[in-house]
Every structure is written in structure tokens, then in C-alpha cells.
What does this fold into?
Amino acid sequence: MELIYKDLISDELKELEISLLESISSDVNLATEISNYLLVSGGKRIRPSICILLAKVFNYEGNDLIKLAASIELLHTATLIHDDVVDESLIRRGKESIHSKWDNAHGVLVGDFVYSKAFQLMASFEDQKIIRELANSTNRISEGEVLQLSFKQEVLEEKDYLEIVDRKTAELFKASAVTAAILSKCSKRELENVANFATALGIAFQIQDDILDYFGEEAATGKKVGKDFIEGKYTLPVIIALKKVNLEKKQKIIELLNEGQMESFSELLEILNAVNLQEEMKKIFGHYTDICLNALEQMPQNDYRKALEDIVSHLDQRLT
It folds into this structure.
């Protein structure tokens, strides 16, 4: 499934790739080599794409858009590098994670290096509101990481799950959109609407990610299923299942998650499939995509808005 935004902003996305590679250049060859290792492995570039599309929705024609999009993607990349160290993840974007290929020290330090490159780009903006928005978002994302860590090995409630998702995932979606709107000189009302759109999009995106981790097809996604299970994370499929099963099954789910052994993944899947999660997950997911579409209706109608509507409408069909 090819979404229309990829053709619509293909030139900007090419410029983004050039900017990213230029941004991570360093006199220390190892820093460039390791950063480049993750950046060239692809990634969806969905956050910088949201940034570019929203600026275009509001007819931005200045020269700072690619720089802004690059700073957002670098922030995202840095969080991924640190996430993999914390979660002890071995694979990222179909390749060995940085800490797995090198070691934890390289993962932490190169993550810091990529953060510093993002901050260098951020500091070059004249508008302090953009710098402040990105700095505040970086802080909230870090708080989300610590919040998730504080719940490790605890049974999460849905509200706690959504709080973590809001901070860890939706926050950078929001920053991508709001900074694009600031760049485009949007009104306060437009900024609030853009923030609502992007926050809801980020939450819906993460919900779909969590669903794929249990029910995705590896041949289609190119990703191993069960990553959240191995890491003992309480994501939406498990949280909903815990509300539906009897005490014996609930204790079994908790036991399987705490052990996190891949050979037991099929046993957990059997429990999840037996309680028919799809309807409730679809309802929660739909709540957030409806917020997105309603917010988009209040934005100028043009091809860039149509591309954003296309992203939202096909979100439940994404495979990666």
C-alpha cells in the first residue's frame, strides 16, 4: 500500500535524507559511522513527513522546513537508540541494534551524539517558540521513558498505558505538527487544533504498532512479532485481555509476561484470541482516528490535507 504523501512531497523527502546525512557528519569517524548505520537503514520518516505536510497545508514557503523536519527525525532516532539499550532490543529496522552490534556504551554515547546534532539544528531557529516546543517535547519523552521504567513488572491500567503512549510516542508527533504550524505563523486556535490532531495520530499509531506486535504477519511486516511480550510490556492487547478473562487466565497472562520466553508466545496468543479483543481495540483505535479526521476538517482544504487524511484513513492497514 503506497500512501499518496510519498509522491506529493517526494522532493522534500529527498532533501530530508541529504540533510540527515549532513547533520550527523563528525570529525570523529566512529560517531558518523554508527549514526549513519541506523539512519540509512530506512525507517518510515512519518514524523518529519507530518511536519512537512502540515507546513504545506498552511502554505509555508520559507527555507527552514527541511531543517525542522531533520531535527525531528534526529530526535526520534536518538530516542530509538536509547530505547534499544534500555529494552535490550537486538533488532532495529531489520538489522542488529546499535548496542547489539557494538555494545551498550556505544549505544548510549551515540544516542547522546545524535541528540546533540538535533539540538544544534534546533538552536539555529530564530523563533524561540520552535526551540521551546522541541525542548519541552524532549523532556516529556524522557519522562515517558522513566514512567514506563517505573511500571516495569507491574500490571498496567489502560489510563497508565495511555499516559506512557502520550509521552513516549504522541509527544513527538505533536511537536512535529505544532512546530510546523508555528513556522507557518498559525493562529492560537489553529495551533491547538494541530496539537489535537497530532496527539491523537500518535496514540493511534502506537496502538496499531502494539496490535501488530501480537497479530502482525512477519512475512508482511518484516518484523519479528512478540517483541513487547519478550520485554514484559503491558500493551493494549494484553490490558484489554486482562479485563476479559477469569482470575486463572489473568494470573497465567501475568506469569507468561513476567517470564517473557518466546516459546510461550503461542500460549499467550491462544488466550488473547479466545477473548475476542478485536471489537474493543477497534473502538479505542477508532476514537483517536475520528479525532484526527475531525481536526483535519478544520484545516485548509488542499492536496496536503488530503494526504494527511489518507494517512489516517489507512492507518489500520499499515504493516510496519
